Amino acid sequence: MDIKLQQVSYAYSMGTPFEKYALFDVDLTIPHGTYQAIIGHTGSGKSTILQHFNGLLKPSKGQVHIGDRLIVAGKKAKELKPIRQKVGIVFQFPEHQLFEETVLKDIMFGPMNFGVSEEVAEKRARDLIKLVGLPEETLEKSPFDLSGGQMRRVAIAGVLAMEPEVIVLDEPTAGLDPRGQREIMDMFYSLHKERHLTTILVTHSMEDAARYADSIAIMHEGKCVLSGTPREIFADSKTLEQYRLEPPHIVRFQAKIEQLMNQPLSR
Ligand code: ADP
């Protein structure tokens, strides 16, 4: 399922005195199976663009294609249901959306709401709890008795239970310790490969963008100003400076070596 944004502009509070454009003529194509990172300074439009991937926001101008479905201004919520099923969004701090009495019910909620049988939904929950690295007994617990990191994993299992073809990750490791961050990111990467998903990662972490993504798009002041492979994007640290982005460790390291090599040897 390819994703294509064509000339997408978005204004908050359109037609009111508070109208504010957050996206301007964004063109972005994400072929099926791509791991796409979207990076950019705070306020550059990342969250706004992210909400266009499953119709939570509809473009004020332009078109969003999700496979053979089209999202344009005025599309009814009912028509967006099939898109919501195929595109799973893991929002920042997804654990805030847990609400059921047990972890099992929480993970089963999404699929059952979309007409999946109880039996199939339970089977998915039992498989997924292990996949996200938690013991099966967790299913019987209240989500509110878990640690923050465990709750995050349960919330992720809830998104995966919908068996999406596209996963959109909004800073999925925010607030986790470095080990938890790496585990979660590696888990998403394995899923991406094994299930041939399209993964879209919105992140502040240049390290994660460099490590996992096939393609990186830079957002700046509501525009998609640059896109390319990590090698192309990180080739010149001046590009990153221009968009107020911190280069990843590997680039800083290379720059340091080059700097040292260019220094005349002292006698
Ligand atoms: P990012 O995720 O990169 O930090 P956002 O997409 O949240 O950027 O924001 C892009 C621009 O839109 C910013 O100028 C922000 O202030 C503005 N914005 C975000 N949400 C709203 C909103 N609900 N109403 C009005 N303006 C908003």
Automatic annotation (TrEMBL):
Keywords: ATP-binding, Cell membrane, Membrane, Nucleotide-binding, Translocase, Transport. It is found in: Cell membrane. GO terms for cellular component: ATP-binding cassette (ABC) transporter complex. It is an enzyme of class 7 (translocase). Its main location: membrane. It is a peripheral membrane protein. InterPro entries: AAA+_ATPase, ABC_transporter-like_ATP-bd, ABC_transporter-like_CS, ABC_transpr_CbiO/EcfA_su, ECF_ABC_transporter_ATP-bd, EcfA2, P-loop_NTPase. One of its GO terms (molecular function) is cobalt ion transmembrane transporter activity. Residues 3-246 form the ABC transporter domain. Transmembrane segments: none annotated. Its EC number is 7.-.-.-. The keyword Membrane applies. CDD domains: ABC_cobalt_CbiO_domain1. Forms a stable energy-coupling factor (ECF) transporter complex composed of 2 membrane-embedded substrate-binding proteins (S component), 2 ATP-binding proteins (A component) and 2 transmembrane proteins (T component). ATP-binding (A) component of a common energy-coupling factor (ECF) ABC-transporter complex. Belongs to the ABC transporter superfamily. Energy-coupling factor EcfA family. This is Energy-coupling factor transporter ATP-binding protein EcfA2. It comes from Lysinibacillus halotolerans.
